[in-house]
phosphoglycolate phosphatase
Amino acid sequence: MALDAEKIRTVLFDLDGTLIDNFTAIHRCYSDVAKTMGLVPKSLAAIRAAVGGSISLTMSRLIGDELAPEGVRRFRAHFPEVMFEGVFVLPGVKWILRRLRERGVRVAVFTNKDADATDALLAHLGLTPLLDAAFGTGTEKMPWRKPQREYSEAVLSAMGTVPAETLMVGDSPFDIQAAGAVGMPVACVATGTHMPETLLPALPDPDLIFGNMFQLGDALWRFPKPEPGDEDAAEE
C-alpha cells in the first residue's frame, strides 16, 4: 500500500453507495416517472446497475438518449417527494467521520447528486454536523459532474487543499477518474453498485479497496472499532 495516510489532511467522500444507500427512493422515483411516460418500470437490481455518473447518464441507460431529457426533468421534480424513502447510512460511516475529525482531518461530500437533494439527505440522516462541507451538482458554482477535472479542481479549491494531501473515497469508476483527473489518491469501498472485480482494473493501488468503512478506517489509520455499547457500534 503506497498511500501514507499520515499526510492526508482532507478526505472527500462520494455520497450514494459510499456514505448512504438511497437506492430504494431512486427506484421509487424512476418507477413513478416511467409510469407517467408510459414506460415499463425496471427492477431495483436494474436501477442499481444503471446508477452512476449523473442522473442524465443514468436516465439515458434506462430509457435511451431521446427520452432521457424529459425523464430527467420529471425525476428532478418528483425526487424531493420520495427522497427519504428507505434511505440509510452505511456501516461505519458516522464512526469514520467522527474519528477523522477527532484527528484533525477535514471531511466533505463530493457527489454527482443535485446539491439541494444532497443537503436535504445529509440533514435528514444526521450527517451534516459530522461534515465540514458538502458539494453537489446543478448549481452556478458547481455546474460540472465527476469525472470532469473542473469539478475536482473546484472542490479542492473550495476546501483550500491540494491533491497530495487529499484522499477521495468512493464506490465507482467515476470516483476513481475524478481523483485521477487531478492526481489525487483514491480508495474505494465495495458498498455501492460496483463489485471489487469491476473497480480493481481502474484503481491505481489495488490494496485500497475495502468491504466497508470499518475496514478502510482500520487499514489506513488504525482506528479502533467501536466497543459494544458505543453509539457507533450499532452501525456494524
